[in-house]
Amino acid sequence: MHSEKGFTIIEVMIALAIFSIGIMAAWALQTGSTRGNTKARHLTSAATWASDRLERLIQLSYTHADLTAGVHAPALDADGIDNNHNGLIDEPGESGPLQLTWRVTDDSPIVRTKTVRVDVVWRDPLRDKSLSLVSYKANPES
Ligand SMILES: [Ca+2]
Ligand SMILES: [Ca+2]
Questions:
Q1: How far, in Å, from the CA of 37 to the mean position of ligand 2?
Q2: In-domain check, residue 30
Q3: What's the structural domain count of the chain?
Q4: Cα of 75 to ligand 2 centre, how many Å?
Q5: What is the residue range of 62's domain?
Q6: Residue 1: is its pLDDT beyond 60?
Q7: Distance 78 CA to ligand 2 centre (A)
Q8: Cα(33) to centroid(ligand 1), Å
Q9: Residues 6+ apart with CB under 8 A from 72
């Protein structure tokens, strides 16, 4: 008489198909969550560097070289930030997705006041992101 023990090849294939659908769903969930974490980490670090720089700039004297009108774009290995998220600030030849610049506008929004805007741009897997922080510095000798 014919034995009914064991699995047929069809049963094994169906089981494998169900198993691989489950694995694919778990993998999609995992990559989505990793991507979200990376995005959040980059946004946090961009906001931290921007606010840190803005605070330092506002504390400088009104006539300091870093507060002359125009765009200030220091080299990546001399900008005082960790552009490539490796824990080292301004290591030799540093490059990376994070770039920080600031723009100073004289007599804005009113006379004898500077507008200081810090811009941070960083590359996400899909497109460039940016954030800007603005503050104002009044001339104390006016
Ligand atoms: Ca670095
Ligand atoms: Ca740097």
A1: 23
A2: yes
A3: 1
A4: 7
A5: 9-138
A6: no
A7: 5
A8: 25
A9: 66, 101, 102, 103, 104
Ligand closest to Cα of 81 equals 2
Q: Which ligand is nearest to the CA of 76?
A: 2
Residue 4 lies in a domain: no
Q: How far apart are CA 86 and CA 109, in angstroms?
A: 38
Distance 9 CA to ligand 1 centre (A): 55
Cα(90) to centroid(ligand 1), Å: 6
Total-model pTM: 0.79
Q: What is the CA radius of gyration of the chain?
A: 27
Report residue 131's pLDDT band, with 50, 70 and 90 as the boundaries: very high
Which of 55, 69, 80 shows the shortest CA–CA distance to 113? 69
Q: How confident is the model at residue 5 (pLDDT cuts 50, 70, 90)?
A: confident
Query: What DSSP letter does each residue of 38-89 carry, written as one string?
Result: HHHHHHHHHHHHHHHHHHHHHHS-TT-GGGSSEEE---GGGSSS-TTSSS-S
Question: Which residue's entry shows tokens 């490059």?
Answer: 95
For residue 34, the CA-to-ligand 2 centroid distance in Å is: 25
Q: Give the closest ligand to the alpha carbon of residue 87.
A: 1
* Residue 1 lies inside a defined structural domain of this protein: no
| Spatial strand order in the sheet of 70-72 | 70-72, 99-105, 113-123, 128-138
